[in-house]
Protein backbone atom coordinates (compact mmCIF):
# COMPACT_ATOMS: atom_id res chain seq x y z
CA UNK A 1 0.00 0.00 0.00
CA UNK A 2 1.27 3.47 -0.68
CA UNK A 3 1.79 5.83 2.24
CA UNK A 4 -1.40 7.45 3.48
CA UNK A 5 0.23 10.35 5.29
CA UNK A 6 2.37 13.11 3.91
CA UNK A 7 5.64 13.48 5.78
CA UNK A 8 4.52 16.61 7.66
CA UNK A 9 1.35 14.86 8.91
CA UNK A 10 3.41 11.82 9.94
CA UNK A 11 5.83 14.03 11.90
CA UNK A 12 2.92 15.73 13.65
CA UNK A 13 1.37 12.35 14.53
CA UNK A 14 4.70 11.17 15.95
CA UNK A 15 5.16 14.38 17.92
CA UNK A 16 1.62 14.10 19.33
CA UNK A 17 2.28 10.48 20.27
CA UNK A 18 5.57 11.33 21.98
CA UNK A 19 3.81 14.10 23.93
CA UNK A 20 1.48 11.48 25.46
CA UNK A 21 4.29 9.22 26.68
CA UNK A 22 5.08 9.64 30.35
CA UNK A 23 8.23 7.59 30.51
CA UNK A 24 9.75 8.15 27.07
CA UNK A 25 13.50 8.67 27.24
CA UNK A 26 14.45 12.33 26.80
CA UNK A 27 16.83 11.31 24.04
CA UNK A 28 13.97 9.88 22.01
CA UNK A 29 11.97 13.10 22.16
CA UNK A 30 15.05 15.19 21.35
CA UNK A 31 15.94 12.89 18.45
CA UNK A 32 12.40 13.11 17.03
CA UNK A 33 12.27 16.91 17.30
CA UNK A 34 15.44 17.61 15.32
CA UNK A 35 13.46 17.77 12.07
CA UNK A 36 14.97 14.63 10.60
CA UNK A 37 13.33 13.30 7.46
CA UNK A 38 11.09 10.33 7.99
CA UNK A 39 11.69 7.34 5.80
CA UNK A 40 9.19 4.68 4.93
CA UNK A 41 10.15 1.04 4.89
CA UNK A 42 8.98 -1.65 2.52
CA UNK A 43 7.36 -4.57 4.32
CA UNK A 44 6.04 -7.18 1.87
CA UNK A 45 3.06 -9.43 2.52
CA UNK A 46 1.74 -12.44 0.68
CA UNK A 47 -2.00 -12.38 0.05
CA UNK A 48 -3.91 -15.61 -0.41
CA UNK A 49 -7.35 -16.56 -1.62
CA UNK A 50 -8.57 -20.08 -0.99
CA UNK A 51 -11.69 -22.17 -1.40
CA UNK A 52 -11.97 -24.79 1.32
CA UNK A 53 -14.30 -27.69 1.83
CA UNK A 54 -14.30 -30.24 4.62
CA UNK A 55 -16.47 -32.94 6.11
CA UNK A 56 -16.85 -33.47 9.82
CA UNK A 57 -18.43 -35.96 12.19
CA UNK A 58 -18.60 -36.06 15.92
CA UNK A 59 -20.94 -35.74 18.86
CA UNK A 60 -22.75 -32.68 20.11
CA UNK A 61 -23.50 -32.24 23.77
CA UNK A 62 -26.66 -30.44 24.81
CA UNK A 63 -26.88 -29.40 28.46
CA UNK A 64 -30.12 -30.00 30.34
CA UNK A 65 -30.93 -29.85 34.05
CA UNK A 66 -32.63 -32.28 36.41
CA UNK A 67 -33.81 -31.68 39.94
CA UNK A 68 -32.28 -33.86 42.62
CA UNK A 69 -33.24 -33.93 46.27
CA UNK A 70 -30.40 -34.41 48.75
CA UNK A 71 -30.00 -34.26 52.52
CA UNK A 72 -27.71 -31.50 53.83
CA UNK A 73 -27.24 -31.21 57.63
CA UNK A 74 -30.42 -33.24 58.14
CA UNK A 75 -32.48 -30.99 55.83
CA UNK A 76 -33.84 -31.78 52.38
CA UNK A 77 -32.61 -29.56 49.58
CA UNK A 78 -33.46 -29.62 45.91
CA UNK A 79 -30.64 -28.84 43.50
CA UNK A 80 -30.48 -28.38 39.76
CA UNK A 81 -27.84 -30.71 38.35
CA UNK A 82 -26.47 -30.27 34.84
CA UNK A 83 -26.47 -33.32 32.56
CA UNK A 84 -25.33 -33.66 28.96
CA UNK A 85 -27.28 -35.40 26.22
CA UNK A 86 -24.96 -36.51 23.38
CA UNK A 87 -26.19 -36.81 19.80
CA UNK A 88 -24.22 -37.71 16.67
CA UNK A 89 -23.64 -34.91 14.15
CA UNK A 90 -21.97 -34.69 10.76
CA UNK A 91 -21.90 -32.37 7.81
CA UNK A 92 -19.91 -30.38 5.30
CA UNK A 93 -18.46 -26.90 5.58
CA UNK A 94 -17.44 -24.76 2.60
CA UNK A 95 -15.73 -21.44 2.99
CA UNK A 96 -13.95 -18.96 0.77
CA UNK A 97 -11.00 -17.13 2.29
CA UNK A 98 -10.27 -13.81 0.61
CA UNK A 99 -7.10 -11.77 0.98
CA UNK A 100 -5.54 -13.65 3.89
CA UNK A 101 -2.34 -11.72 4.57
CA UNK A 102 0.91 -13.41 5.60
CA UNK A 103 3.97 -11.35 6.48
CA UNK A 104 6.64 -12.12 3.87
CA UNK A 105 9.58 -10.48 5.64
CA UNK A 106 11.50 -10.73 8.85
CA UNK A 107 12.67 -7.12 8.73
CA UNK A 108 10.25 -6.11 11.51
CA UNK A 109 8.96 -8.14 14.45
CA UNK A 110 5.51 -9.56 13.70
CA UNK A 111 4.00 -7.77 16.69
CA UNK A 112 4.82 -4.45 14.98
CA UNK A 113 3.29 -5.39 11.66
CA UNK A 114 0.24 -6.87 13.44
CA UNK A 115 -0.28 -3.46 15.06
CA UNK A 116 -0.61 -1.88 11.60
CA UNK A 117 -3.79 -3.84 10.90
CA UNK A 118 -6.50 -3.70 9.74
CA UNK A 119 -5.49 -2.99 6.15
CA UNK A 120 -8.15 -1.51 3.88
CA UNK A 121 -7.48 -3.83 0.95
CA UNK A 122 -10.54 -2.52 -0.90
CA UNK A 123 -8.66 0.77 -1.29
CA UNK A 124 -5.54 -0.94 -2.61
CA UNK A 125 -4.51 0.56 -5.94
CA UNK A 126 -2.82 -1.53 -8.64
CA UNK A 127 0.92 -1.84 -8.00
CA UNK A 128 2.94 1.06 -9.30
CA UNK A 129 6.65 1.75 -9.66
CA UNK A 130 6.03 4.99 -7.74
CA UNK A 131 5.42 3.00 -4.52
CA UNK A 132 9.01 1.76 -4.45
CA UNK A 133 11.31 4.19 -6.23
CA UNK A 134 14.43 2.38 -7.39
CA UNK A 135 12.83 -1.08 -7.19
CA UNK A 136 11.04 -2.98 -9.92
CA UNK A 137 7.92 -4.65 -8.52
CA UNK A 138 7.49 -8.12 -9.95
CA UNK A 139 5.63 -11.25 -8.88
CA UNK A 140 7.62 -13.67 -6.78
CA UNK A 141 7.32 -17.41 -7.39
CA UNK A 142 6.93 -19.47 -4.25
CA UNK A 143 6.71 -23.00 -2.94
CA UNK A 144 4.95 -24.32 0.15
CA UNK A 145 6.95 -25.28 3.20
CA UNK A 146 6.07 -28.84 4.15
CA UNK A 147 3.90 -28.92 7.28
CA UNK A 148 3.33 -25.17 7.21
CA UNK A 149 0.78 -22.72 5.87
CA UNK A 150 3.55 -20.18 5.35
CA UNK A 151 5.10 -19.82 1.92
CA UNK A 152 8.79 -20.30 1.33
CA UNK A 153 10.18 -17.47 -0.76
CA UNK A 154 12.39 -18.06 -3.75
CA UNK A 155 14.42 -14.97 -4.46
CA UNK A 156 14.70 -13.90 -8.05
CA UNK A 157 17.91 -12.15 -8.98
In short:
The protein is α+β, with helices and mostly antiparallel strands and 157 residues long. The chain has helices at 7-20, 26-32, 110-115; strands spanning 45-72, 75-103, 142-144, 151-153.
- Pairing-aware structural class of the strands and helices? alpha+beta
- Summarize the biggest pleated sheet: 2 strands, antiparallel
The unreliable regions are: 143-149, 151-157
What fraction strand?
35-45%
Radius of gyration: 28 Å
Report the mean per-residue pLDDT as an integer.
78
Summarize the amount of helix as a percent range.
10-25%
Q: Give the total of beta strands.
A: 4
| Total of DSSP H or I helical runs spanning 4+ residues | 3
What is the overall silhouette? elongated
- From N to C, what is the helix and strand string? HHEEHEE
Strand numbers in spatial order across the main sheet:
1-2
Give the N-to-C terminal Cα separation. Answer: 23 Å
Write up what this structure looks like:
- The structure is a single chain.
- The chain is of the alpha+beta class and 157 residues long.
- Among the domains are: 1-40, no CATH class; 54-92, no CATH class.
- It has helices at 7-20, 26-32, 110-115, and strands at residues 45-72, 75-103, 142-144, 151-153.
- The chain has a two-stranded antiparallel ribbon.
- The chain is elongated, with a radius of gyration of 28 Å.
- Mean pLDDT is 78; it is low at 143-149 and 151-157.
Helix and strand arrangement:
Layout: H1 7-20, H2 26-32, E1 45-72, E2 75-103, H3 110-115, E3 142-144, E4 151-153
Antiparallel strand pairs: 1-2, 3-4
Amino acid sequence: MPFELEERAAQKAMSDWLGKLWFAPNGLQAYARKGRRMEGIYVPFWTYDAESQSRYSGARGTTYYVSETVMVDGKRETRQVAKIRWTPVSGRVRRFFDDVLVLASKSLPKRYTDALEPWDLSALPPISHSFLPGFAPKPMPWIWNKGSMRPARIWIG
